[in-house]
């Protein structure tokens, strides 16, 4: 199946638009890590079960911060790799251009399948560093999860997972224009 835009020509438009969403999602993840670090550094009390004199010195809290930092880095790396593939496709000419557009679309979908669960996990796990005070409305840490969930909901991951599986198993082409309320199946 040939990736086509409205004019029947191969297009990088869908990958570009998805990368805008994914870049925003990574930004939410980075903000969540930044705010989690700031929150932990500001804490003066620790739990009776804690292992450090402060929350910042507690190895379990350090572990959570390390884990969420790594997940955001993985999401960012996946998005940057897709952006590089897209730039290669956009600057290509000749016979190789169509294959590069297809590769960029695939890489972008794969980045989505990495970034969405990673950032959603980060925006949930950040609450493990501070107990109930982390849910304070004045801190508004929940906004990170809400923002990530909103961005992730634009193009549901379950459909992209299936699309890649179908492609790898059956050679099915990727769908380049996504929409709601329309189907590509024929009657």
From TrEMBL:
Keyword Oxidoreductase included in the entry's annotation: yes
Keyword terms: Oxidoreductase
Record carries keyword DNA-binding: no
InterPro entries xrefs: Acyl-CoA_DH_C, AcylCo_DH-like_C
Domain Acyl-CoA dehydrogenase C-terminal: 25-155
Record protein name field: Acyl-CoA dehydrogenase C-terminal domain-containing protein
Protein source organism: Brachybacterium conglomeratum
Lineage: Bacteria, Bacillati, Actinomycetota, Actinomycetes, Micrococcales
